[in-house]
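Quick note —
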Amino acid sequence: MNYWLGFGVIFIIVAGVLAGLLFLVRYGMGEGRVRRWLENGLLALLAVFFTLMALELGFKLFFAQSDGFRYTLASKNWYARYWQENSLGYRDREWTPQDVAGKTKVMVVGDSFVAGSGIANPEDRFSNQLGRLLGDEYVVFNVSSPGWDTADEI
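Predicted structure written out below.
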């Protein structure tokens, strides 16, 4: 299910049920101590629910952190925001034959460290920095993927 659809459905259902119960208690019961306790309890539940939904919304929109595994929602959010792959499935730019013609080619192979997991801007990875240090006579390819081990890299 789409995240936003699920968020909206949960919000509408739970908020509607709590607000409906609050309405029934407030206008369907007579005066008394039980009514006040129920009103206050439902108001507290409604406040906690709105607070938790606001926190969820804030984390989804403004918090992205990589754990390297894409298991947590924050990590999935980070990968959706910062991880773009080329047509070969690597986190590298699209290379054309004209880009590499007549240049010395260097291939950096590795796992999530080499791919730049946790690094928002791929230009900050060591393979990209190596390419800048070597100059225009060299082309540095980043051929890496999170989770790779020696057998995958060979």
